[in-house]
Amino acid sequence: MKEFKPVKEGKVREIYDNGDSLIMVATDRISAFDVILKNKVVKKGTVLTQMSRFWFDYTKDIVSNHMISVDVKDMPEFFRQPQFDGNSMMCRKLTMLPIECIVRGYITGSGWKSYQENETVCGIRLPAGLKECDKLPEPIYTPSTKAEIGDHDENINFEKSIEVLEKQFPGHGEEYATAIRDNTIALYKKCADYALTRGIIIADTKFEFGLDENGRVVIGDEMLTPDSSRFWPLEGYEHGHDQPSFDKQFVRNWLKANPDSDYNLPQEIIDKTIAKYLEAYELLTGSKLQ
Ligand SMILES: Nc1ncnc2c1ncn2[C@@H]1O[C@H](COP(=O)(O)OP(=O)(O)O)[C@@H](O)[C@H]1O
Ligand SMILES: [Mg+2]
Question: Looking at the domain 1-93, which fold is it?
């Protein structure tokens, strides 16, 4: 049996090179306040992978995606082991575009900070009088460039995204920049509207796109998971203050109350967190996790 080693190990995901395809594995690691906790959240990886799978299927009429299969039977033998079952996605290898496509439907986080200073977010002027976590009149596209490891991603405006893409893909900057912006807004609208009917507010999210072997723009990476998005419970939503995170609220609250814990959480908090991930999955997809 051929052994595989990850070509990339992120905080939460591992990526394996399989020739023409990649295998992206979501682990059960969980981070909070940018630190990886000592605990594993059993089944979190499966929830995340299956959630991406759901959204890729749900949006394939808008833009095609990199998903080939989430069935380990379609993958090399090495992946037919319990630790890969359900949490692995075989994907088409893309030439990734160096832009993080962020879309915000609500004003929160760094956007709220910036708005309080000058009523703009990433150079986009917003109406006066917004309260924290208010819904925006229209979702806004606020791209950033992927920073080198260690640096913070840099916010850019749409014009700058054309420039960045033009540099790497001469003659295609405007075409790609427009395609990823328009897809980002269309995807967010369709999915956030749907999530709302299921009791979840998707406040903002990040997509990544790449080019397939025919030079077509395709969506890659993960899609609309709690790791790439802000999910808020619709129940209890109220503007004027920060909202609880759908998935990580128990973890964050406990860490704040126990600053000396060294990121080792009681099982009770982990169990409650697993339950939230499963709840999000079931609400969004309308079915139980297999
Ligand atoms: N289909 C794909 N083909 C090639 N690279 C991809 C594809 N989908 C996602 N990627 C890339 O895989 C990497 C995933 O790594 P990740 O764990 O998210 O860490 P980071 O975002 O910090 O680079 C990202 O660089 C992403 O752009
Ligand atoms: Mg990433």
Answer: Phosphorylase Kinase; domain 1 (3.30.200)
